[in-house]
Write a structure and sequence with these properties.
Bound molecules: adenosine monophosphate
Helix content: 40-55%
CATH class: Alpha Beta
Strand content: 15-25%
Shape: globular
Number of strands: 7
Length: 187
């Protein structure tokens, strides 16, 4: 499968997040999945891509020209797609992938994960999305999403737009077993 992973560009996060990124990369490579990601050679992105490559997985990076010119792209990627804008980059990643995983990350990662949820909510897409909740990283976000439901900002059925995994193995299992459910129309 072609699996798009969103994750942190920071290299100074705790070791537990780096090892979770490496573990996911290792399993992607071992299971012959293709990694589609933000092309970075830094942070969890770099850990993830090199672990995927080390196990023989194919790595596809998608990066806007400006970031590529900063020298931030992973040189060993099997394919690097350079886009003009951030919006085109997200579109390219969404179109190519069969499934999405959100590892821990900052606002870039949050934005990417939220866009996938939004597209699914509006029925532009029905592909699986799994949040990899290493060490409870996403607990506060999950509580906020529940608050959206409790205060009627979101239909409770939309909590099915994503699944939550505790480790890479569970995340990949959820993707393999995923069956798109019929969700209500938002409006
Ligand atoms: P953040 O979570 O804020 O570190 O942003 C990481 C996410 O945004 C990744 O999934 C990338 O797709 C994108 N991104 C942000 N910064 C970079 C960078 N320096 N190089 C490549 N992609 C980046």
């Amino acid at each position: 499968m072609k699996i798009c992973v969103y994750c942190s560009s920071s290299s100074v996060v705790a070791e537990q997040y780096k090892s979770a990124a490496r573990e996911l990369g290792k399993l992607l490579g071992q299971n012959k999945h293709e990694l589609i990601y933000g092309a970075g050679n830094i942070g969890l992105m770099g850990e993830l891509a090199s672990a995927t490559k080390a196990e023989g997985g194919r790595v596809v990076g998608v990066i806007p020209r400006r970031l590529a010119e900063y020298g931030l792209a992973y040189a060993l990627a099997d394919e690097t797609i350079v886009t003009e804008t951030m919006a085109e980059r997200k579109q390219e990643m969404e179109a190519r992938a069969d499934a999405f995983i959100g590892l821990p990350g900052g606002i870039g990662t949050l934005e990417e994960v939220m866009q996938v949820m939004t597209l699914k909510q509006l029925r532009y897409m029905a592909k699986p999305l799994v949040l990899l909740n290493t060490a409870g990283f996403y607990d506060l976000l999950l509580a906020h999403l529940q608050r959206l439901v409790d205060e009627s900002f979101m239909n409770g059925e939309f909590l099915q737009l994503y699944q939550v995994a505790h480790d890479a193995e569970e995340a990949l299992r959820m993707i393999q077993e995923y069956r798109a459910s019929e969700l209500p129309l938002k409006w």
